[in-house]
Input
Amino acid sequence: MNIKDIVNRDRITLTNCEHEPIHIPGSIQPHGFLIGIKTDEFTIDFCSGNCTDFIGIGHNQLLGKTFRETFGQENETALTAYIADLSRQSAAPLRLTFNGQCFGCSIHQSGSVYILEAEPHAPDRDKLVDAYTQTIQFVSYMNSTSTLKELCALVAHGTREITGYDRVMVYRFDQEYNGEVFAESCREDLEPFLGLHYPHTDIPVQARELYLKNLLRLIVDIHYEPVPIYTIDDVPGKNLDLSLSVLRSTSPIHVEYLANMGVGATLTISLIHNGKLWGLIACHHYSPKNLTPEIKLAAQLQGQFITSQIDLRQSNEEYEIARKANLALEKLTGFNLPPVAESFKIISISPELLKLCNAAGVSICIGENIYKNGLTPKDEDIRLLSDWFLNYSNDAAFHTDKLIHFLPGIGQICSTVSGVICHSLSGGNSIIWYRPETQSEVHWGGDPNKAIIRDTNGLHPRNSFNLWKQIVKDRSKPWLRPELNTAANYAHSLQKQLSMMLLSNEEEKYRNLNEILKETNAELENINWISTHDLQEPLRKIQLIGSRLLSKEDEQLSDSVLDGLTRIQNSAHRMQTLLVDILKYTRIKNTEAVFETVDLNAILEDTLADLKEMIREKNAGLTFHGLPKIIGIPFLLRQLFSNILLNSLKYASPDRETTISVTASENPISVPALRGRLCWAIYFQDNGIGFEPQYADNIFNIFTRLHAHGEYKGSGVGLALCKKIMQTHQGGISASGMPDAGATITLYFPCDVHGTNAL
Output
């Protein structure tokens, strides 16, 4: 059986220090020992090299053995019962006896291995923390403090009393994970760290990730010698994830960092808020120090108490800000302003617009206009900033207290304003609040630019923690959540105001257009009426004179003169027919006749009676049956049927007897062209000369003719008139046909017209 250690010996360089695998060091701290047990077989697959020191059995004797044969049935029974409810380990450690000595054991699962970490149990050190007393203490903290800072200061003091550490700090992170000592309790002879800042590199990304997983981290003696972990060499690259381990060995760089600070032992408790690492309770001792499991638990409760109070305390601190902001918001939204552009000017100069988010300036971009108040950039800079924001945010909200971070090339704007809240309004418009630069002095615990030092021996943390001052420029006072909320609420209200204005403008525009259209139509109707009536008189005179000349039998007229007179008569007749049809066409559009229930069978019978002579002259056969009742205007329907039948008679084929059939669909059908409305379909089918299919739509256009005047008489208005009548009935009309194969005209009457169901 080959045995190997899994110590990670990779050298840390500038290129991989951000990715140092601190979760798999392959070693532990020496104040306890570790055993890794396979979850399926309960055989020992990993163990630390110091097992002999604690239980008198070496790692080479433990590996490959079952837990039972090594430690006995009683210990295995206790272990399996504890594993069955691993959540208990946060409340109390498991007590096991190995080789006659009692150990406090913490257990967690890492992949397919249960990791058991044991520390000697010392009864004389077991000063059990009274949970009731701690609870009363927590309540007193809550009642005696109003701010989060005060609460953290009391927790730091209480944690130091419980644990006995020389220094206890509540460490808070900013957005970039730079840290600030937010509260502190320390020995009187120690230099205070309160208010100092530390760069994010002091706690790299992978360390922060582990703090999210493992809420408590202990280093008993920073000068410890790491104890290697051994395993059976049966799988290539075999390793053990110690993310949740309490004994896990620490990064050499972190140990050196603590040594440079003069620290001898540490306890770190994670403060998790809304799933993120809000901060740490960092405990420093200037000599080696260990804690009992009970005291560790009591200290961890302090951290959980802080995180449970973060929202409440921050809300208390922000209440007054929120109250004033909401008061300003109520005043602004209470303005009863008309939906016109001038209203935005009134809004922009209102002092409440600045108060609702405690801004120093504001601008509202509406179209080509910019309304502004207070401290703002120049108009061209506002336009540039608005265009950038609309493109950058994709119409979402945006805020920052460090504008130069996003727009490094516009230092001239950032010298005026460093913080902005931007909200998009429809149509490429926007509202932007501004805050000026607020220069501040930040005290760092050492130069943050020298957090990592490289020399011939590799990487090292900085060894200087002397006070280092930095002047922060190009940054405004940060926007608080109540300020962001009221800005968002008012931007929504302003959007409604803008929408009302745009809607009002559109309504006004359409009203004006409608008035112009009415006036134009009225003029056209007058011109049409006058022109058609005035033209009737000269046409009648032309026809009268022509008729007189043609009727004089005693005068011998030449053939050319007779032909000319005949042509004049025919032209005058066509002109008269055209004028009559134009009058019919324009009157349909403006009809105010009342819709009523109409039996199409009766309408068709009346129409046939009017056309009886022409039907007899053409010797046409006409059949119809089963036409429905619809909602319509009787006289228009008679005109409709008359035009269609006259069209069939006019374009009858000379090679066969004319037949016309009028039928209807058995049931209403859905018509896609009418957005799927249910309609009765009426079919007029003849066997006339037909037409080319490509003209199926064109034949309904006014003045459209498919044949020369000499072949067939007509004005080209008839089918256009039919289309207009069907539009009046909210229906449709279509045509189909083939040359010398007849044509079919189909009418679609909606089953529901003007809110009335057809019968």
